[in-house]
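Supplementary notes (optional reading)

For those who missed the lab, this is the record we used. Protein: Solute carrier family 22 member 3. Length: 549 residues.
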Amino acid sequence: MPSFDEVLKEAGEFGRFQKRVFFLLCQTGITFSSLFASVVFLGQAPGSYWCRIPGAAELSERCGWTLEEERNFTVLPLHLGNGSSSGECERLDVVWDTSVSCASPLVHYINHSVGNLPLTACQDDWVYKQPHSSIVSEYNLVCGNAWMLDFSQAILNLGFLVGAFTLCYAADRYGRILIYLLSCLGVGICGIIVAFSPNFTLFLIFRFLQGVFSKGTWMTCYVIVTEIVGSEQRFLGIVIQIFFTLGIMILPGIAYLVPTWQGMQLAISLPNFLFLLYYWVVPESPRWLLTRKKGEKALKIMRNIAKHNGKYLSPHYSEITLSNEEVSNPSFLHLVRTPQMRRNTLILMYAWFTSALIYQGLVMRLGIVGGNLYLDFFISGAVELPAALLILMTIDRIGRRLPFGISNIVAGIACLITAFLPDDIPWLKTTVATLGRLGITMAFEIVYLVNTELYPTTLRNFGVSLCSSLCDLGGIIAPFLLFRLATIWLELPLLIFSILAVVCGLLVLLLPETKGISLPETVEDVEQLSSHFGKCGKKRKHQDTNSYI
């Protein structure tokens, strides 16, 4: 019986059929990255706002004040009585009633003591010039509640984490395309509910669920693309990252054109309903069908692929070799039971954690260093395009491992240098910081490819999901680490990023090279990769592995 790789080669490893499926599934990257980075715009600072004195709304209506006049009566006396108060997080500890004069509502209090006006912390009485421009003004995430904005991003990443363990695990049990379609439906429905949430609690619940389903779409579509092409075309896993970058570049345009956060939330959520049409054009992964003892269905799909590619499978292809490994419910023990699998898993988990922490940290850092947020965000996304091109130019020439390690080390060194460059030469600081963003983007994109290539078919989706869950853990930590350390010293987070990246760069050099090697089908195949440690581009030779056991 022929092996799957032999049948795939005859049917076409990257023909018209795979190109169509690849292009369709790549659109998932645009919607996923838009959700991934949306907090930068959903949570924009609301601009001018102040704390309203109790009774001010009624008095303002009786006196016919404009918002600006009300603000003057509220905030200006604070500057007179307490120059350190801005009126944003505290207010005068008074209550306006019907006896208050419209011309001089504070005259009674000011006459008592101009230099010592009674103050109290603001609770829920903020007034915004643009009340629905962001979730900050919608749910009063200012002053003592400002940490809740960081929490909303952490909740999204927690959803990614849960999605990695649940939906991606389900994709190994029930099929890639089924879980992909259900996840797309979930992202769309939850996105609509998020946009119309009447309170912050409901917003957090469905933002979490949107993260769960979104991770299911992204990881499953990535695995499908990898499993229907030949080993020489697995660079497509890098190309799909370009669509992630396109989503990053498109996002500031959407935010600029759509004035409200609800509109922006709908703009990045509704396209997921269109992906449900893939039910009729994207097949189940034939590799997965083989692992579930469904060889006839796998062969039927392979014949369809061959037909669309203008190929013809030989009549003797009546059955495809099934994996000799029994299919069971995968667990973490399966990933660490053997020496090579254990080494790969631990290093990849650290690489995912580091890449996500540094990448998200550098993205969110744009919001605290000043400048034009829309333009800076677009440029930061455009910087990622050369990363994919550099990877495509190197991985098939010198392999995966060396670019993986160097990109992490370059990112670490760039972060370190940026931290100590003076602010009076901004062009140099921006250039070095951009180099760091380029390096960590390369590392982030390579880890997707390498992770997929280092696990057998029966554990691939689960292995990628488990390791990438550390990416989500890094995303949960990133906003708190960035903003809390930045209050001590603006560049302190860069020092942490530098250490993490350099250590990661050294560790990934211990991984086996997978350039030009067929995707492993069993755990024994993965263990054989260790024999090619340091030998780029060799094909795996099938040999007796009973002695290993």
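If you only remember one thing from this example: The beta strands are 49-51, 90-92, 119-121, 126-128.
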